[in-house]
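User: Can you model how magnesium ion sits in this protein?
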Amino acid sequence: MGLEEEIQELEEEIATTPYNKSTEAHIGRLKSKLAEKKEKLENQSSAGGGTGYHVEKHGDATVALVGFPSVGKSTLLNAMTNADSEVGSYEFTTLDVNPGMLQYNGANIQMLDVPGLIEGAASGRGGGQEVLSVVRAADLAVFVLSAFEIDQYERLREELYANKIRLDQEPPRVSITKKGKGGLKINASVDLDISEDAIKGVLREHDYINADVAIGENLDIDRLIDGVMDNREYIPSVVTVNKADLIDPDYLETVNDNLRAHDIDPDDAVFISAEEEKGLDALAERIWEELGLMRIYMDKPGRGVDYEEPLVLFEGATVEDACHKLGGEFEDRFRFARVSGPSAKHDEQQVGTDHELADEDVLRLITRK
Ligand SMILES: Nc1nc2c(ncn2[C@@H]2O[C@H](COP(=O)(O)OP(=O)(O)OP(=O)(O)O)[C@@H](O)[C@H]2O)c(=O)[nH]1
Ligand SMILES: [Mg+2]
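Assistant: Here's the modeled complex, given as structure tokens:
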């Protein structure tokens, strides 16, 4: 039996086995086997070549536009960035990844217009796997939906999930330390719904024989497997509804109902018209927020504070991250820093590398001679 058939058989067995306490451990093992076999199949097919997209990461953060053909991704990219992506009223105009740079709050945010994901993957045109690898590497996924095809959202999310992209969730709180002996020891800091047997079954299926396993959340089997596999990408997402210029006022409630039917709060979706360049500022603002970026104004000796071109870092970044991004002498010869603003206890507070910065801090770095 080939890998594909084995995968199919496992999927069928999982689908037909009722889930309850007595089948839980069994289902956990089946799902683990499935995850391992899928991984194997993927490694086999990618070893066979495939050029892949080599879109370099530029700028402070990267956003992938995800959507079916003809929803307006290229139009949007052209409207928001300096890119000049081909726009066509026929499908498959974009067969390669087009990058553009969005300037917002002094940050350079790279936006990638990836080819129609689903049809690209299904037909082999546009190379579905490669497209997905671009999304996996992004810091944010922006779903571009046409106001008239909201149901495409489901397919897009499924496709991303199948390709190990987890949207709008934190990585599972699972940490595994391999040991030389002693079997599997599960140490949960919260009450768990799944049984210890099920957890151990999953771990053994992934070749853990002796290990200490710390679990910090009440997770289900799928999230446990995500935590064990450790190769999932956790990415935030935004939904934008395009072609809003074509929505009749009496059709708007239908659009909102369709959004709700897919678990999207209409107030959270950003309505835009890429063609008429409406709603794009609101979208840029949402992108900024979801990326969790912050501006650090550098106080440069003799030149004062640079409010024009801030150093842009992700929330949670420390002085060390700032030094790393600046590189050179700041990284090699750092002595201490002075910080004023939201993260400082007082103006010009002296801090070390582990000080956590906040949006709109003013930072001065002092280096050794
Ligand atoms: N009315 C209206 N038409 C739009 C809007 N945005 C895009 N279009 C039109 O929709 C068609 C498809 O737009 P594209 O930007 O090429 O779509 P795409 O998502 O890049 O499509 P692919 O490259 O094939 O994946 C074009 O005819 C656009 O002019 C919009 O906001 N309103
Ligand atoms: Mg396009």
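A couple of observations from the model: Confidence is low (pLDDT under 50) at residues 47-51, 122-126. Residues 293-367 form a domain with the Ubiquitin-like (UB roll) fold (CATH 3.10.20.30).
User: Helpful, thanks.
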